[in-house]
Amino acid sequence: MPSTPTPASAAFRSATSEDCADLALLADMATRRLTSFLWGQMASPGQSSFEIGRNVIRNDTSHYMHCENWRVAEHDGKLVGALNGYVIPEPTGSPPALDVVKPLNALKDVAAGTWYIAVASIYPEYQGKGFGRALLAEAESIARAAGKDRLTLMVGSFNTRAYALYEKCGFTEWERRPFVPFPGSDEPGEWVLMAKDL
């Protein structure tokens, strides 16, 4: 009988300003280029979208993506992935937004009050080894510590591998909204809001 491989162990720590380049890349991987597209809207001519993202993560203490709001996963002393999340505030009337984020904002309104996983991302060379599950377990611990009994996240319907992982980890569909394409994005589909009761 073949043995089941033992999942690799991850050590978690709070992110620091030294991690910001990794965090910017992991955020963009998790959002399938949406984050760098949005950062690019803020960039001056010739300026890298990742420069903008790194600066936001490093310096903007009011932004949910500030480095203090991240947990980093390490294995054998190497950064393998990271987690970012927060409690979604109650809707107060969304400010004007680009079309690409309107469906996401609408789903966040549905999920108000939950602990929301904004980013859960593992570098490709470490995927399929249990680190994704470890990130989700870490998110559950943080949500419980924050007094929340529901964990939420969003995934594109076209991201079948991530969707399957979330289902295996106990997340179920809550609601969907149409995906609005942007330059370099995935093919059309839907944004799927998924939830797990804790």
Task: List its salient traits.
6 helices, alpha+beta, 198 residues, 7 strands, disordered N terminus, globular
Description:
This protein is of the alpha+beta class and 198 residues long. Helices cover 32% and strands 25% of the residues. It has helices spanning 20-30, 34-42, 49-59, 102-110, 131-145, 160-168, and strands at 11-14, 70-75, 78-87, 115-122, 150-156, 172-178, 190-197. A 7-stranded mixed beta sheet has the order 1-2-3-4-5-7-6, sandwiched between helices. Strand 4, helix 5 and strand 5 (150-156) form a beta-alpha-beta unit. The longest helix has 15 residues, at 131-145. The radius of gyration is 17 Å and the shape is globular. The N and C termini lie far apart (34 Å).
Structural class: alpha+beta
Poorly predicted ranges: 1-6
Question: Mind summarizing the main beta sheet?
Answer: 7 strands, mixed
Distance between the termini: 34 Å
- The overall pLDDT, averaged over residues, is 93
Q: Which bin fits the share of residues in helices?
A: 25-40%
Q: Count of helical segments? A: 6
- Principal-axes geometry comes out as globular
As a percent range, the share of strand residues is 25-35%
Strand line-up of the largest beta sheet: 1-2-3-4-5-7-6
Radius of gyration: 17 Å
Topology order in helix (H) and strand (E) letters: EHHHEEHEHEHEE
Number of strands: 7
